[in-house]
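#struct-queue
[09:14] JT: dropping the first one here, sequence first, then the structure tokens:
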Amino acid sequence: QVQLVESGGGLVQAGGSLRLSCAASGSIFNFRTMDWYRQAPGKQRELLAAITSGGSTNYTNSVKGRFTIFRDIAENTVYLQMNSLKPEDTAVYYCHATDWRSLDYWGQGTQLTVSS
């Protein structure tokens, strides 16, 4: 069974940095894409950044230039490096993956709180 396990959330001051990790239970090449989403209270879940099996990346405008998605193939882990954090980045962050059969997998979520 595929599992995605996130870690790295917490409390950080505005302007600070944090790195989230998403460890897959098998090879990350089992997935066509791996992504990071977030959901703030009262808001819809929002796609932030994606990385394909070929290593291409995409970002939503609100995090472009501040967040970086990257991977460690040997560790079967995808990361989200978050810099210049703002209070509006406060949310639960989720790792998501889509496999080659277009099946979706979600992690359990990790809370990020950015204080002003």
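[09:21] JT: and here's the second one, same format:
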Amino acid sequence: QVQLVESGGGLVQPGGSLRLSCVASGSRRNINTMGWYRRTPEKEREYVAAITRGGDASVADSVKGRFTISRDNAKNTIYLQMTNLRPEDTAVYYCRVYNELGAPVGSWGQGTQVIVSS
């Protein structure tokens, strides 16, 4: 079983920055891709970014140029560097991990709240 713990959220003004972290613990040997998602009361959970164990990364078009995903395999941790934040980025951010077949491993973490507001 894999446990995921997200952190780093908070209240930030528009144009500001935050760095989110997600640590995977437990049975981690099957983990390949790790990704970030976000959810608001108005929207279903949506994809934000993902990165493979080898470092291949992708981000959603809505955050391209503003968000960067990175990974520390030794620490089983991924990061989401968010810059030039907008009010529409307000959401609860979750991470999720997948094995090499693309199947999810473990459950969603508890998420970390990001609020972008002046």
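[09:30] RK: nice, looked through the second one.
[09:31] RK: The longest strand covers residues 18-26.
[09:31] JT: good to know. The mean pLDDT is 94.
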